[in-house]
Amino acid sequence: MGAITSVYSSRAETSNQSNKTEGEDDDLLDGKNREQDIAQFPYVEFTGRDSITCPSCQGTGCIPTEQVNELVALIPYSDQRLQPQRTKLYVLLSVILCLLICGLVVFFLFPRTVLIEDGGIKMVKVWFDTENKVVILGMTSTLKISNSNFYSVSADSLTSQVQYMNTVIGTQQNSNVTLVHPLSEKQVNFTVKAELGNTLSYLYYFCTLPSVKVHNIVVFMRTSVKFSYIGHVSQSSLETYQYIDCGANSTIVWDNSITGPRK
């Protein structure tokens, strides 16, 4: 009886194993059939309403190797990478920085007026033409140039005209006068030759009159200087009245211990 039972059990196990093998084979066949079905099914994109066949992979679900470097990746608009943090802050700081730089450039490069001041007559040399009754004056004047810009200024030309009683008695023009450094002052000396003759020949007798110790006359000087800097050209003018002694040579000695010149 026991032998019969063991025979039946062994047959049952053998039948179970054969059934399992047949089931696994069926599963493998079903899997291969599914893969074939999926391969034949075109790759589509599901947008919620309609499905669109992928144009890049042509419905195969794979991108050809030769087109990898030709395609552009599409990132959704809602992607976090397209929404950087503190964008407004960065834009505001950039605008402020640009305005600050522009303001500094305008402040330092904006052309300012170059001022000229009269330094007075420094020296006067007198010659007498006894034959023609003419007094010849050589007047050396001082001009102070003030540069308030943050760059050097070139004084290209200086023109000076001397008048006595609305009569022009001398003119002088100099070129390439000087270069004034930023935020500094510079003194320029120039000499104008003037002649007191013709209709002013009566001054010869006044200037040579021995009974008069000081032969002062008043002359009118008009001086203009042309400046150039960073492509900008300007001109400053100065008009002054000067007292000079036409009877003898005179030199003004400058002394730093006092506020004004002395003879």
UniProtKB/TrEMBL annotation:
Its main location: membrane. Residues 111-251 form the Transmembrane protein 106 C-terminal domain. Residues 1-20 have a biased composition (Polar residues). It is found in: Endomembrane system. GO terms for cellular component: endomembrane system. Residues 1-30 are annotated as: Disordered. The chain crosses the membrane at residues 89-110. Residues 6-88 form the Transmembrane protein 106 N-terminal domain. It comes from the Eukaryota. InterPro entries: TMEM106 (IPR009790), TMEM106_C (IPR048509), TMEM106_N (IPR048511). Pfam families: TMEM106, TMEM106_N. Keywords: Membrane, Transmembrane, Transmembrane helix. Belongs to the TMEM106 family. This is Transmembrane protein 106C. It comes from Xenopus tropicalis (Western clawed frog). The lineage of its organism: Eukaryota, Metazoa, Chordata, Craniata, Vertebrata.
